[in-house]
Amino acid sequence: MVTERKDRNFSRRFVLGGVLAIAVLGSGLASFPAWAGELEDLRASGAIGEAYDGFARARDSSAKSFVDNLNAQRREIYTKRAAAQGVPVDQVGRVYASQILQKAPAGTWVLAENGTWKQK
Q: Which segments within the chain are labelled E, that is strand?
């Protein structure tokens, strides 16, 4: 019961900061304009997918290096947010995942928690 309330309170606080959170995540990529364009291109080609945990996955080995760099940036953001909120990093990643998926274009590959891929 207490854990459920804490999770719900975290979600409320996090949603209130959601616009800022996306702005921070976006600004991290915006500082690398080529990355933003490359991310969209790789998503469109199916080489990259987004996962339930807020991290990208390389669906093609040619995108592995890009995904590793992208996930390092995301991990840094999630870690800072988790420390500020006093919650686990994986919980922050899951909240970001829903925001990332809302912003991702149609056709983006999405990895579900059960390990199956589907297109948005």
A: 48-51, 56-58, 109-111, 117-119
